[in-house]
Design brief:
The chain is α+β, with helices and mostly antiparallel strands. It folds into 2 domains: about 160 residues, Gcn5-related N-acetyltransferase (GNAT) (Aminopeptidase); about 140 residues, Aminopeptidase, CATH 3.40.630.30. About 40% of the residues lie in helices and about 25% in strands. The chain is built from 14 helices and 16 strands. The strands form 2 sheets. Strands 7-6-15-9-14-13-12-11-10 form a 9-stranded mixed sheet. A hairpin with a 2-residue loop joins strand 11 and strand 12. The longest helix is centred in the middle third of the chain and has 15 residues. One of its GO terms (biological process) is cell wall organization. InterPro entries: Acyl_CoA_acyltransferase, FEMABX, PG_Glycine_Bridge_Synth. It holds the Pfam family FemAB.
Length: about 375
């Protein structure tokens, strides 16, 4: 019997995700409430009466036209590798999805298959950063390459999907390169705190000890502390030259995610002698935890509040049974003049690894409107 795709309830969507080891928090039903400027829909793949896959679709309307870009960030939650080798290949899964989305008014579909193509361990990343002959991380030999994931991307191209470089508020593109700290050994057994510490570089271990000796205290915050977090987040944005999200965004994120699961999102606060010196947010779905936003003050940087707060989040992720502590996006540039290299060096100090996702892929449904959409984005 061919697979079918139809709208499902948020409850059925969440029940399906809860049965998985993990899924992206961007694919949880609650995320549609965070992205209020998009229209959200939960969809399910059915083999007969059984749900065998799910996805959160965000619809963004074209100006002056009742047509939409249908976007599945870091999704859908299906086994792409298995689907690509099953009966009918990826077409058996993606064709009914596209047909459903087209009936909803989609002129194009964008998705981000949750697949890792390549990995670079900490030693390889450090060597690449120090090599003047390399301009990007992608030019460095990978520690591990995933042939099954590469086969999926090859099949997507054959089916007419186009890989995208996500940027801009409309596309809401997710980073292609991320940084992971693995919290389990190769055989799946949990790592100990001692083992994780040993994997960090000397500077990270020294800074964690320095923060402890200085008396930095890390605690969990509540909804009432979001404003304090946002104050130093805005300070961080000004210092590091990026545009901060407004305070209501974080209030909405807290209410939506924790309304779905009371421990989905956490707020961490690092104080030194009563002064807030760093604050972060962490999101967890199953065995995957994400460091999503971070902030620190320019004052008292010497007490290393950022290292202390990261170490607390890592330990909490371990205690929750997570396999991955995800430090989210990095760029692949290795240009020593680029400020983003400093972010790579900060994250690589944890002893983790850089990972390259399969990226985001578009399928034009209405080619004329899709072309108009591309021109619209170029003018923004």
């Amino acid at each position: 019997m061919p697979l079918t795709v139809r709208t499902i309830s948020s409850a059925d969507h969440l029940a399906y995700l809860n049965a998985l080891p993990s899924a992206s928090f961007l694919q949880t039903p609650a995320w549609s409430a965070v992205k209020a400027e998009w229209k959200g829909e939960s969809i399910g793949w059915f083999d007969g009466a059984e749900i065998v896959g799910a996805g959160l679709v965000l619809y963004r309307k074209l100006p002056k036209v009742a047509k939409y870009l249908a976007y599945l960030p870091e999704g859908p939650s299906i086994d792409f590798a298995a689907a690509s080798t099953g009966p009918g290949g990826l077409s058996a899964w993606l064709d009914p999805m596209v047909e459903h989305l087209a009936r909803q008014g989609a002129f194009g579909v964008r998705m981000g298959p949750p697949l890792v193509l390549r990995r670079w361990d900490a030693a390889t990343v450090k060597k690449a950063v120090a090599d003047p002959a390399l301009e990007t991380l992608g030019q460095a030999p990978a520690t591990l390459s995933n042939r099954r994931a590469a086969a999926v991307t090859s099949q997507l191209r054959h089916l007419g999907w186009r890989e995208q470089i996500g940027e801009g508020g409309f596309t809401a593109g997710q980073p292609k390169y991320n940084f992971w700290l693995l919290l389990v050994e190769a055989d799946g057994t949990p790592r100990t705190e001692e083992a994780v510490l040993r994997g960090m570089n000397q500077l990270w271990r020294r800074n964690i000890k320095k923060a402890d000796k200085a008396g930095v205290e890390v605690s969990l915050g509540t909804a009432d502390d979001i404003a304090a977090f946002h104050t130093i987040y805005a300070e961080t944005a000004e210092r590091d030259h990026f545009t901060p999200r407004p305070l209501p965004y974080f209030r909405t994120m807290w209410e939506a995610l924790n309304g779905e699961d009371p421990d989905r999102m956490r707020l961490y606060l690092a104080h030194h002698e009563g002064d807030l010196v760093a604050a972060t947010t962490m999101v967890r779905v199953g065995q995957h935890a994400w460091y999503s936003y971070g902030a620190s003050t320019t004052a008292k940087r010497e007490v290393r509040g950022s290292n202390a707060i990261q170490w607390r989040m890592i330990r909490d992720a371990m205690a929750a049974g997570c396999a991955v502590y995800d430090m989210r996006g990095i760029t692949d540039t290795l240009d020593p003049e680029d400020s983003h290299v400093g972010l790579i060096q900060f994250k690589v100090g944890t002893g983790g690894e850089a990972v390259e996702y399969a990226g985001e892929w578009d399928l034009p449904v209405n080619k004329l409107l899709y072309l108009a959409f591309q021109q619209y984005m170029k003018r923004r």
